[in-house]
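Give me structure tokens for this 230-residue protein.
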Amino acid sequence: MRNIHAGKSIRRVAVGMLAVAAFLVPAPLASAARADPAGRDDRPRVSRLPGATGAEGIAAGDGSTFFAGDLLNGNIFRGDIDKGKAKLFITAPEGRAAVGMKVDRENDLLFVAGGATGQAYVYDLETKKTVKVYDLAPAGASFINDVTVTHDLNGIAAAKDGHRLIVAHTGRGALYRVDPDDGSNITSGNFDVPTTAALSGNTVALVNAKFATPAATSFEVVLVRACHGG
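Here you go.
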């Protein structure tokens, strides 16, 4: 394991080792609109991940910032929900992967599950350097699917009002808004096998993994509204 840089403290991390095999049906790509309070739809709904070779994990950072990982090579993209743009942020060392991820905002750290590598990684968001590598299992023996820094769960985010959960359903290409009174779902023509979700304010950023499209050459984050009237 690598040592932590001085001045950085890493919280207790639970890393789930899940062997996952999915056979999924993609939703067709189309334009999805979301009106703002003035009745306009002038914010980007899709944020492209330029040069990505795969995608699965996403995490919310400070403000409207989000981080998304390249599933196949471990690179990390940083994007802005308000601007609808993303760019390469960290070029990972060869042999890494990026699956589920979480941000420790207090310490400016990004925790990333390494999938079939059997590892998990911690990046300093200020220096972009690796500050720790967890060797959790021999490569190929287990699939490190997600990390937990707080009480978040994989594919689930709490809505801003504190009374609803936003749950990603990969196979159906939809989000479910769950509350004690009634359940409703969020759909978008832009969904193409959505996987993990990150909440920023009243916007959910969701990664299109495109697992059912092996020949996919582009990957993106879809932005949808979490709650009505927010």
